[in-house]
Specification:
five-stranded antiparallel β-sheet, 41% helix, formylglycine-generating oxidase activity, 3 domains, globular, signal, alpha+beta, paralog of FGE (formylglycine-generating enzyme), SUMF_dom, 598 residues
Length: 598
Amino acid sequence: MSELRLGAAALLLTTLGLAACSPGTDEPPAKSAKPANAAAASAPAQPVDTSKLDNPKPLPGDVSLPLPCGGELVLRSVYVLAQGSLDDREVNLGYPFSEGEAGYQQSFISGYRRDFINGQFSLQDLSPAWQKAVAPNLPELDQAGPLKPMMYFIGKYEVSARQYAQVMAQAQSLASGEAPPACQPDTTAAGRLPKVKLSRFEAERFAAVYSAWLLKHHRDLLPVSGRGSKAEDGGVGFVRLPTEVEWEFAARGGSAVSRQELEGRLFPRKVQGSDSDGPLGDWAVFNQVAGGTGQAARLMPIGTRLPNPLGLFDVIGNAAEMVQESFQLVHAGRLQGAYGGFVVKGGNYLEGEGTLFTGMRREYPLFGADGTEQRNETTGFRVAIGALSAPRSRYQELFEQWQKEGRLASLTDDIDAVQDPTKRLDSIIAATADPRQQAELGLINEELKRSVSLIGRQREEAAGNLIQSAALVAETINNYNIRLTNLRNTQAEAKARGDQTTVSMYAAAIANGRAALDGAVAIYIDNLASGTRYTDAVIQAQFQRVKEELNRKPVLGKSLVSRATLFVRHVGEYRQNRRADPATILKELLASAAARPS
């Protein structure tokens, strides 16, 4: 039955226009000064290393799916720490332009805005080979903790002309059941150019044909969201265009960079032995003529530059890239409610350096003036792996998370889950006989739960800030103690010399230092009391997030992780005892500093 359904699906794909994917003669004239197809046509048809056609720059953590005729499509994993499938992470997209900056007058297109991101796959949802590849890149978490890495997968490179041709050659065979065509692999450098001059519909048709081919021949290699004992219970992966937030979060560096770096104009470009970012030209293909280098603007093969922090190539410049959504304007820090053409991300090889930034986006029309599907000389795409968001195997988990997130008991330990007012309101609504009153109460209940969820998110962020702040206070206490120790040693030396004047001077400095130390300890204990105002689940979840962020800081990070770990333990003890002894706290803080590895 599954083969019959697959055949019907493939036939439907053909009906939707698979045959139209071959180049036509009714395409609009090129608008660029130096079109990509001209560059491809002029490129020498010299063979290249076949082992590097689809993955010219292998990296640890690469995963791949097979392509027809022995090729492969290489992907990179992107993770988000979340409490499950219904959780997500708030991220900022675009850029907050200042007046006078390039892009300021188009802030309504690419301006600063809020969005949310999560992955669809846990580590257990992946094939053994993928698990082995991606596990080393995941953070080390307490298995009993509330958070786990949820992943999505996005193309390491833009889809090349060679890959596009290999997949689309299978369309007729999938639709008709005929034998697939003989392989005619393209091993030229021109075949490694990103596939451009195709419509948004053709990019989606590529994803549909590739998905059908994978499901028919390599279903076992695809990830399955909510993988369970029964294959049909989970959501098997399929190929699609990435969403805009998936694309931009990954392009910015995702969880491989700090929050500050994530919101920068350009992704971090680390150079060994330097504190400054390297030149953008080492990471992106763009028009450098204005800069005086004389380099012509032309499309380049995939992977010719350096990767971003997540291991993605050409997210800035080279071919601009289509994403899944229709275009929406930016309004008041969010996307506005009207929908237009389609979104293109990252800029292209004709752009100048001053106009490029990671969150760059443009609106392109779906159709040309003559009614044909719009194709552009500078626009291509990369793909992502999607799956069902709510497979049957996750229904219970999703329902429990949905019920929990709107409860007042999730905000504080002072409210018992059984006596939660929102839960009692549910019971009242269910027992109401008047349908109209029941509907009105239902709306009020939903607004209440929405407000509770909003407050809960704000409290989670505040708890994370508290943990970081307390870790810094603990570090300050250690620094004060080092200073006090040095003052006492110097005073002892003066006393040994019989220098009473110096002894008296240092006595005053020691008294001031001790007062500062005691004040810092008092602030730390105040933070412990504040920590008990959040549920233990919130403290533990935010500690995992803070720990991940601090571990990215090369020097101070390890020390602050040690401080934050001790603070969370102290909060738990304060929650039980409702008090803390300053001398004991100071002793444990100093002991943790002494035990910390250098």
